[in-house]
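Hi support team,

I'm filing this because I wasn't sure whether my run with fructose -6-phosphate finished correctly. The job status page said complete, but I'd like someone to confirm that the output block is well-formed before I use it downstream. Pasting the exact inputs I used:
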Amino acid sequence: MLVVIKKDYEEVSREAARIVAGAVRSNSQIVLGLATGSTPLGLYKELIALHRAGDLDFSQATSFNLDEYLGLPAFHPQSFHFFMKQNFFSHVNFPSGNVHIPDGTISRNYDEYCAQYEQSIKAHGGIDLQILGIGRNGHVGFNEPTSSLASRTRLKALSRETVEDNRHSFSNDSEVPKCAITMGIGTILDSRRVLLLASGRSKAAAVAKAIEGPITSSVSASALQMHADVTFIIDEDAAYSLTQRDYYRHVLEMTQIFTPERLS
Ligand code: F6R
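And here is everything the job wrote out:
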């Protein structure tokens, strides 16, 4: 595990974009796992800027999004389909046929649909690089606390905390989603490389538990400790509760000297 501590959100976004852009350049047919939410917005902005500058080509890339709210059609402004189009896909040359986001409008045969999503990831050769944010309760994707660490893509009830976090985005209380389709923790752990981004003091407790706490289903992100190639890119505020900050800085320095390719 590599923990990269940056000054602020802008630096986190730039560093994440540097790594993602490097991965896309070295493998034009890359399969990206993508996240929504406020955290990756800066990353998407940076990637869009690189694309506009002629420095980044997504014409052969494929993507699988982590999750989608159940009950929201793609045109709903709070859907993750809408988010991805608005904040990334409509600004870059990602072929629409290569974009995969769980369908929030299905109303039956959930298990079959989710198994197909898994199958499709497999058929594309698996996810090369998975981008993650982290919830205040330590969720990744919508793997809420007590999710099985071996879970696969499935329908998942959202926790009270997540529903509350989302409430402000919906004008009508009855519209606030209570369930989502999400990749499982097992699905995420199958990715070849994982980048988790976090910013702000509100994430500090979850980040510390994920990196330094015991591996537990109470903190889904702690399962990433079992992944052989995970990089946390976090700002000083999100790093606030880590006890080993000096050691992470030392490891990073050594990595830059001995295995700089790990960072590109
Ligand atoms: C989004 C997702 C979630 C978010 C998490 C953090 O696709 O799967 O796990 O990454 O809720 O959200 P933000 O970045 O809005 O704090």
